[in-house]
Amino acid sequence: MNVPGSDDGRLRLLPACPRPQAGETTDSYVRRLALANHLKPSYLRGYLAGPPDFSPRRRLRIDRLAGLTGRRQDVLERTLTDLAPRKEAPAKPKRRVTTDADKPGLFAAIREDSTVKPELSVQRLAERHHVSRRIILQALDSPTPPPRKKRAAAKERAQAAIDMIINDHAAKHGGQPPTVMQVWERLLDEYDITVGFATVHRYMSDHPAHSPSTHANHPDRTAGNFLAVTRQTFQGNVFKHYRALLSALQRDPTRHGLDDSFAANTAFILGLDAGTSWNMLTGFQEWLVIRLDHGHDLTWPVLIRHLASGGWIHPFTPQAEAEAVNTLYRLLREYFDLREQPDGLAVIFKNYQSWLANQAWYQFETNQVV
């Protein structure tokens, strides 16, 4: 396949060209086509949109899709539902549009007709009142109309995935939120969610990660306060993502390729922390030292074992290891509770500094030279 940007109009067939399925949408077929050829769906969509900018936001060109797959354009138009020409349906009598306020009266009228004229079928009642059969059955079943079901908007359907993408990106980039295009492409490539670019843009415009700068929100904090300024954006909603992930890990470690050992769980969490440039567990070791009241020279996995019920046990017994794993996740939840506070990290280091100052080994005498 030609490289975008050097398109000369001659398209080469893709190595793998699965057959489009009857009733399939274009987005579904392009996704299958991309995965069959080890391409990102967003990349293939951009290429099918064509020159000059190859933007995946643009509507793809059916002639380019035909050229890449070797299938006739008219066949694709008949097979893919959103490309097929719409046939004019015969005119039907318009159904009655009812509001919630009108429904009690409508239900009462339907039930009265059914009582006075029991020979009327459900279909005849539906035609008589210009409503669907479902409304008739609801009215005959109960005089009280059921509450109207809210249809989830595209933004709401993709909300959880967008939040996860934003939190994941912020965790890996020091609190910097992703662009709208990055979120839109990841929805398409990783979550198989096709949603309008404008929908993602509107949702992200109101997202807390895109709020004004920390200085604007907290003018009392000076630029020299490193802990308050550089960590503020990172905190946000990031820890909600880690809470969910660690809860799932504790509940079923095998789904993440782990066993239930203390070593496997701590190794996974260490790797997760490394993926955030060591931001996720900043201050965790100091916070544990304060709880244990010693061990400033120990790593946090060792401190966890000391804080487990029964204290340090080596080698592990099955019961002691299970208790250590439970202690690990319990202390992580408590630590996240504090980190989510606006000044949580500053409080941790302030308390740790106070603890150090009270340690005899931390006191140094200064000899004054006369």
How would you describe this structure in keywords?
disordered N terminus; disordered C terminus; 370 residues; 19 helices; 4 domains; mainly alpha
How large a portion of the residues is in β-strands, by DSSP E? under 5%
Number of strands: 0
Helix/strand/pairing class, anyone?
Answer: mainly alpha
Helix content: 40-55%
How many helices in DSSP terms? 19
Question: Kindly, what is the distance between the CA atoms of the first and last residues, rounded to a whole number of angstroms?
Answer: 82 Å
What integer is the average pLDDT?
Answer: 79
Biggest sheet character: none
Radius of gyration: 31 Å
Number of domains: 4
- What letter string, H or E per element, gives the SSE order? HHHHHHHHHHHHHHHHHHH
The residue ranges in which pLDDT falls below 50 over 5 or more consecutive positions are 1-6, 211-234, 365-370
Name the overall outline.
extended
Compact overview of the structure:
The chain has 4 domains: 1-87, no CATH class; 93-149; 154-211; 235-361, no CATH class. Helices cover 54% and strands 0% of the residues.
